[in-house]
Amino acid sequence: MKYYRSIPRTIFEIFNTILFVGVILICILPVWHVVCASFSDAAWVLSQSGLIWRIKDFTLKGYELVFQNKDIMTGYLNTFIYVVAATSIGMLFTVMAAYALSRRDAIWGNTIMFFITFTMMFNGGMIAYYIIVTKVLNMFDSRWVMILPVCLSAYNMIIVRTAMMGIPESLIESAQLDGAGHFKILFSIVLPLMKATLATVILYYVVAHWNSWFQASIFLRDRTKFPLQLILKEILVTGDVTSTINGGSNANASDYSGDLILFKQTVKYCTIVVSTLPIFIFYPFIQKYFEKGVLIGALKE
Amino acid sequence: MKVHSSKGAAQAVDPSAKKFTIPKIKRDFKRNKEIYLMALPAIIFFFLFAYMPMGGLIMAFQDFKPKLGIIGSPFVGLEHFRAFFNDPFFTRLLRNTLAISMWELLVSFPLTIIFALLLNEIRSKLFKRTVQTISYMPYFISMVVVAGMIIDFCKSKGVLTQIMATFTGSTQNILSIPEYWRPLYIGSGIWQGIGFGSIIYVAALSGINQQLYEAAVIDGAGRWKQTLYVTLPGISTTIMIMLILKIGTIMSVGYEKTILLYNPQIYETADIISSYVYRKGLLEFNYGYSSAVSFFNSVINFVLLLMANKLSKKVTDTSLF
Predict the structure, then answer these.
(1) Three-state secondary-structure class, residue A47
(2) Helix A260-300 vs helix A154-165: crossing angle, to nearest 10
(3) What backbone torsions phi and psi does residue B62 show, to the nearest 5 degrees?
(4) ipTM of the complex, rounded to two decimals
(5) A55 is in which domain, residue-wise?
(6) Does any CB of chain A come closer than 8 Å to the CB of residue B277?
(7) In total, how many domains does chain A have?
(8) How far apart are CA B157 and CA B175, in angstroms?
(9) Chain B residue whose CA is closest to A18
(10) How many domains does chain B fold into?
(11) How confident is the model over A144-190, as pLDDT tens digits?
(12) Among the four A174, A203, A219, B62, which has the fewest Cβ within 10 Å?
């Protein structure tokens, strides 16, 4: 499509371009600062004030210290287990429920739909949730608490259901005439038709589970079960904010021994990079599906 | 099987299918057994992890003792609610919660729409994609890492402190100054969420019929008029839906960032209802009282959501339900 270009229009476009270059810089610079600092000489990083925009005296010492830290390594493994388990169980439940609720002939469909959407509008709050999960469901300090109570999101289920409702009814009916049951229809006909949506929802789940720390901080006490983010919280936040109320221990401090003071800052930057990298590696693969997936959900809303 | 399923499709259009008679329920259950079986895990999930905690709100009316449990704890009526309204921190909590929400509603919300509109004006496909890819990224960084970065940037040698120092000359840690908390909270929220938040509007924008623009051009409308009379009406439904959802969360400012970053020095502006619930309930074990505060919060949110939905239905014919 051709635009009519006047002088004000040209001026606007120049300003718009400058604005978005600024946006890109603001999004990238903080991350760039962290990455550069993580590879730089520790003493130099400590002496710097303001933005670090280049690597000085390239070193991997900080990363060595990070990979020697047992907490970070078990945290990595735990997070991996939680993400894989919660996402697989959650996706299975999500597509099953979404399919069931996209069928229009079951008379309780709307009731079940309301039962689920109501939880998005009203909830029992943090304390009641804590008491129920701890005292009634007995999940305190169990690995399951990082998997089961968080595996399903009503919002994601609705995205999948909306996409399923866009699949031609005739396709499903003809499969039924061929004698296929609903499970078979779901897994061999419906799901292969909606890869973009599935990829998007999987990304949502993976990112949410990978980044989750609060669930762990209230339900887990055994350090060998801690996910990466909770270890990160101790390193990045508790060690610094002068608050007594966050009350975490600083047990990981002993792992760095003599290098602690000098490398404390660099290690922080390295842990940020190490913990965020997997998500950024994962993201571009999904991104091509990603907007398409969100788009389908948005347009049908 | 064949006969049943084709009958099922016919029944869906039949208005009498709405009536719940015992034989109909039985027939429906037989025919759609598999459908209900598929929904069962989700039903159990929401029952256990959403409805049971809702039932757990009874605690708000009890002097809850973990040993006695929800069934055994003595009832105290509205005692906790009365105590909360008389709490010396009540006005401070309410003020801080509402202030953050209002800033989000008045700044972050429109900025996201403006971001999408301006993004839509970029004509180079490559540049547009680059902006999108990069501006979505901060959303995927975890809150703990964002908090860690904020702490680092707010130290007296940090980037933000240095920038502020050129105006104020003071290199005091930003996280210890109450006045800076709200801009910091809102600003970091925009940094993290504006790109990702704009996706839904970009999607809505791409759904606008291009012929409307051509017609507007023929009628002599410039870009500004086109934006005003074609683009904005075209995405108004999306804007309204997002606005209703936003209003429904006015009282529930995200507590994660607050809990990670605040400290007693800035409670004056940083402490919000949800962080107070966290402190009272999970750190001081005052379960009954904190669940009453939480209950109060949820109810107000729910009422606000219903009101926004009703108002929007009346004024713009757009509603969630």
Answers:
(1) helix
(2) 40
(3) -125, 160
(4) 0.86
(5) 7-59
(6) yes
(7) 2
(8) 13
(9) B122
(10) 2
(11) 999 999 999 998 998 899 889 888 889 998 998 998 899 999 999 99
(12) A174
